[in-house]
Automatic annotation (TrEMBL):
The organism of origin for this protein: Pseudorhizobium banfieldiae
GO molecular function: structural molecule activity
Family: Belongs to the FlgI family.
Signal peptide (UniProt feature, chain positions): 1-27
Gene Ontology BP, a term: bacterial-type flagellum-dependent cell motility
Name the UniProt record assigns to this protein: Flagellar P-ring protein
HAMAP family in the record: FlgI
Subcellular location: Bacterial flagellum basal body
Length: 374
């Protein structure tokens, strides 16, 4: 019984020690696939010009958008329909720009989503159908063809005296609306090495990634194969006896301790403040006070005497009141994130005040972090 209690106490002690150490040790650990991307595996942007038909009177007015009329006539001529005659007044067609991202290693026949955005004065694309539109890359080559029903999330309702609009009705998506017709010229298997690019460039993370790959390669292939070129790129040479696809699958699941510089991101428009975990504040005293000025206009109407020839006059009267609220002097000393946040909360100011305080601390040289203003 004593032996069992001793084992239980040992287990609880080990669990407590692990819970105290493991979160800090593993909080910044991540797989390589989550922090880096393959250079040859990037997306390619596609763009095209097309027409959306079948709209319920919410399309382009052909007089205000002459390119829509020209495109509609050219499409009908390609279908063998004569377009000679007067100009049509129908508003069931809208000219749109079609965009999509061609994923890496995409093969002909696979499908992808496309985004459709109005180019003219159409008021809504709801209920429309995108007709066959070719999508080209930066090299001018056609890589996909898109067609299908346009899905619009917003809606608009209009009456004689009121209009209700929610969301954007002039843009939508065609899920799986594009079929890939041409594959990219580069082949993954033809590469002689792998180039991994960090999404958040950092020299420490790049070196740790190269070290993790070399430890794995030393056990699997008998020697190092990775080298950190700079803060963003890590080059992995392909061993002679290795398959490139299998090598990438094994490397991307390795765990690396990531590291990022200390930053404080401030968005003054929305009052958003994001403070990184490694932000430190040297010992500094802070006092924050707000000044409120209230201007009140109470004009007085002065009436003339009865049976007089005077006129009614308005005499302006302005009351200006200034109120200044001075906060107490607080001492901030942020050796860690929790202490820093607690110190800022103790001052009792709103986010706009915290933004001003952080900017003042940075100007005083006490904020040991990069201040990013958005």
């Amino acid at each position: 019984m004593k032996h069992a209690r001793w084992i239980l106490a040992l287990v609880l002690t080990a669990a407590a020690a692990l819970s105290a150490v493991a979160p800090s040790a593993m909080a910044d650990a991540a797989r390589i696939k989550d922090i880096a991307s393959l250079q040859s595996g990037r997306d390619n942007q596609l763009i095209g010009y097309g027409l959306v038909v079948g709209l319920q009177g919410s399309g382009d007015s052909l007089r205000s958008s002459p390119f829509t009329d020209q495109s509609m006539r050219a499409m009908l001529q390609n279908l063998g329909i004569s377009t000679q005659g007067g100009q049509s007044n129908a508003k069931n067609v809208a000219a749109v720009m079609v965009t999509a991202n061609l994923p890496p290693f995409a093969s002909p026949g696979s499908r992808l989503d496309v985004s459709v955005s109005s180019l003219g004065d159409a008021t809504s694309l709801r209920g429309g159908t995108l007709v066959m539109t070719s999508l080209s890359g930066a090299d001018g080559q056609i890589y996909a063809v898109a067609q299908g029903a346009v899905i619009v999330s917003g809606f608009s309702a209009q009456g004689e005296a009121a209009t209700l609009t929610e969301g954007v009705t002039t843009a939508g998506r065609v899920p799986n609306g594009a079929i890939i017709e041409r594959e990219l010229p580069s082949r993954f298997k033809d590469a002689v090495n792998l180039v991994l690019q960090l999404r958040n460039p950092d020299f420490s993370t790049a070196v740790r990634m190269a070290d993790a790959v070399n430890v794995f390669a030393g056990q699997r292939y008998g020697g190092p194969i990775a080298e950190a070129r700079d803060s963003q790129e890590v080059i992995i040479a392909k061993p002679k006896a290795a398959d490139l696809t299998r090598l990438m699958a094994e490397v991307e699941n390795l765990v690396v301790q990531t590291d990022t510089p200390a930053k404080v991101v401030i968005n003054e428009r929305t009052g958003t403040i994001v403070i990184g975990a490694d932000v430190r504040v040297s010992r500094v005293a802070v006092s924050y006070g707000t000044l409120t000025v209230q201007v009140t206009e109470t004009p007085q109407v002065i009436q003339p005497e009865p049976f007089s020839r005077g006129v009614t006059a308005v005499q302006p009267e302005t009351d200006i009141m200034a109120m200044k609220e001075g906060g107490p002097v607080a001492i901030l000393d942020g050796p860690d994130l929790r202490t820093l946040v607690a110190g800022l909360n103790n001052i009792g100011v709103k986010p706009d005040g915290i933004i001003a305080i952080l900017q003042g601390i940075k100007s005083a040289g006490a904020l040991q972090a990069e201040l990013v203003l958005q």
